[in-house]
């Protein structure tokens, strides 16, 4: 008998029929004797409909009122799901973020959770009720409705699981787990039984859009076991948890992540004096452009080359800023390429295994793929390559690290 | 400089364009220096859409969750109207019923207001803000969302006006005031400048669906001046207020109300002994059938005839019950007619004028309209006639009491 916090996203509650299916699923867990707290998103399309109404009035709608508006989306879902449970003879009670109450700061449209009152929910659980909570929303200390930003329902689920000391936070979505890489690119991509929070963060930030990064961070911080499962088919999904020493056989690399939306920029021949990196990046961040990989090589003949990547959409803006900075710094020129992609191998296993990076470079060299940039972290090695080689590189690495379905016996 | 509580119904806020028009209207009042509290309904069609979703799940949806669901309708409108005001440079703040807070009992879907906290709204008004409140909803002492029942936004407006001691509660609707009778029946029907709460109650309950009866009762009880105006065209509307002694010239009759949805039932030849009326009506009310006019004549030869009217939809059910009761009472038979209508003349002026009733009967007799039942109150005389004479009777009375546009000089 466990306490599960289950989060169902917009697609999982997108129609009345799907809400009924969620109610069936919850009823099944109840019948097994578990305590269930359900967190739901707005029905798919509803949030966009509401935002559309607002944008018809104001191009940049008042943030406080935006939160009043969009928070109705989840409120509709909690009511409908509670009715569907009631219909099945299961006592349920819905809660808006204010009713819980999920206390946040006042940063409308991107609020952060500060505290969660659990007493009412606990009384309901003790009375045998299913608790149905509106995801994505909270309330500040003045009683203003706030939202956590789009996709924030995952965060609500994890925060509730932490506050209620739940046995597991289960994120139901339209995929059946986290894969070794994108199955659309590599046919042999496999679902992972288990992955660590750190690996998941690296995978998530590199484009596996299964889970919100914030929710994973939150879960890691509070050590809430997180499971990604499919709303539409049964299966164990993927458990995201702290590193488990008992998994001796854990492969060195858990997955191959990639991102094709990048562009790189190089300031060539920068004088090698202190403060240069800060002046270059400072000018970029003042334009609200986010930088991903940064590489600077050792200097030769008193100048150096400074290279970094940005989102492809920011390429033109970044280049314009750099031209000015380069002139001020007396740099030789600004070079760039917006037809690049980043490929990364991710795995906590690489901490204790030498030779992972060289194996990666060998695999790419064998396919004649030139590596333009390299960046590493403790559990990740990323390379920047020409975009046209992306799929080839991902497949080669997936195979080199024996992640293909043919290579390993399914657990 | 006055404080107005203005209520805009679903049609008045039915689209983004109409919400913008309401914002223009409110901006105009603000520019004149008035303090404004706006109460809004859900955008027209939205409440029915939400109820439809619920009914797809449960034929009799859980009342608590129904309130959570439908209260989102007004919440959407308050956010959008606040944005539209913000766009016009007018500082505005939206409030749900919970945020106000409008404290109600726990009777979900038909809650009654118990108390209203005015401090936050007053601070906003003092700071020059327009306060935008979701109509129709409140919160019980446990924090559960409640609703006042359909159309309850009028009641919210009046209750807020009473609590804030507003100078006037203005109900914006799709008609430009209260008329002497239905203009679709009598071409010469005229807008009334003023009408008393009591007259309005008699008019409202008899089918002039301009205002919710509860809101009028509430306004009368707390002496809140109530004005009905059009959202779509300018004009003074109709002021509903306490009797004004200064209006010497007030006509005897303010208006002609009618209702064609009635049916009458007679228990013929009931023994004239105590307790008969209570046994007959008790059996009807146990079936949750509402009774309107009741007439019992003096007895002849120890038996009497007991007649009453019900809504036409309840005719069959009422007859079935009566057959059984008639048998138990030893009554002769049950007779009935579901092709009847009720016509009433309403006016506080009739208190001090003799001969009003006879003038009414004369006018009907002149058209050869047979009167089947008569019922009177201090400010009203109602007659039941065959339905086919309804329009003829209304026109005859409207003319007899000199209410036609040709007869009186517009005030």
From TrEMBL, chains A, B:
InterPro entries registered for this protein in UniProt: AceGlu_kinase-like_sf, ACT-like_dom_sf, ACT_Aspartokinase, ACT_dom, AKii-LysC-BS, Asp/Glu/Uridylate_kinase, Asp_kin_monofn, Asp_kinase
What reaction is this protein's catalytic activity? L-aspartate + ATP = 4-phospho-L-aspartate + ADP
| Domain (ACT): residue spans on this chain | 265-339, 345-411
Q: In which pathway does it act?
A: Amino-acid biosynthesis; L-lysine biosynthesis via DAP pathway; (S)-tetrahydrodipicolinate from L-aspartate: step 1/4; Amino-acid biosynthesis; L-threonine biosynthesis; L-threonine from L-aspartate: step 1/5; Amino-acid biosynthesis; L-methionine biosynthesis via de novo pathway; L-homoserine from L-aspartate: step 1/3
EC number of this enzyme: 2.7.2.4
Gene3D superfamilies listed in its UniProt record: Acetylglutamate kinase-like, VC0802-like
The alphabetized UniProt keywords are: Amino-acid biosynthesis, ATP-binding, Kinase, Lysine biosynthesis, Nucleotide-binding, Transferase
Question: Which residues does the record give as ATP binding sites?
Answer: 7-10, 173-174, 179, 184, 209-210
Q: Which GO terms describe its biological process?
A: homoserine biosynthetic process; lysine biosynthetic process via diaminopimelate; threonine biosynthetic process
Q: Which GO terms describe its molecular function?
A: aspartate kinase activity; ATP binding
Q: Which residues bind substrate?
A: 47, 74
Cellular component (GO) terms are: cytosol
Q: What sections of the protein cross the membrane? A: none
Q: Which SUPFAM superfamilies match?
A: ACT-like (SSF55021), Carbamate kinase-like (SSF53633)
Q: Which family does it belong to?
A: Belongs to the aspartokinase family.
Name listed for the protein in its UniProt record: Aspartokinase
